Structure formats: C-alpha cells, structure tokens
Amino acid sequence: MKLNEEKKAYVEPQITMFALAGDCPILAGSPPVKTTPIVVPPTEDDDDTNLVPEN
C-alpha cells in the first residue's frame, strides 16, 4: 500500500476493508440463552427515609 506523503490541513481517515467470502465461523452468532429471567420485587427499606441535611 502506497501512502501519500503530502501535508494536508485536515485529518484524512485511513480505512482498511476486509471482504469475507463464503461461510465464516467468526461471524456466527451466540447460541440462544436457555434461561428464563425473573424480576425480584424490591424490599421496603426505611433506613434512608429520615435524611438530615449536611449544611
């Protein structure tokens, strides 16, 4: 690859592209997750209801 050595007043982006032909195992997706998420309800917390201002 030949680089242009001229001085420029702006930043020229350098882009490298790769082309993949055929099936590629690198691009395979993650396996499906076999769990069922659950939501745990919050517990009541009375410790922080009586706040005292610092100043």
UniProtKB/TrEMBL annotation:
This is Uncharacterized protein. Residues 32-42 have a biased composition (Low complexity). It comes from Prevotella jejuni. Residues 32-55 are annotated as: Disordered.
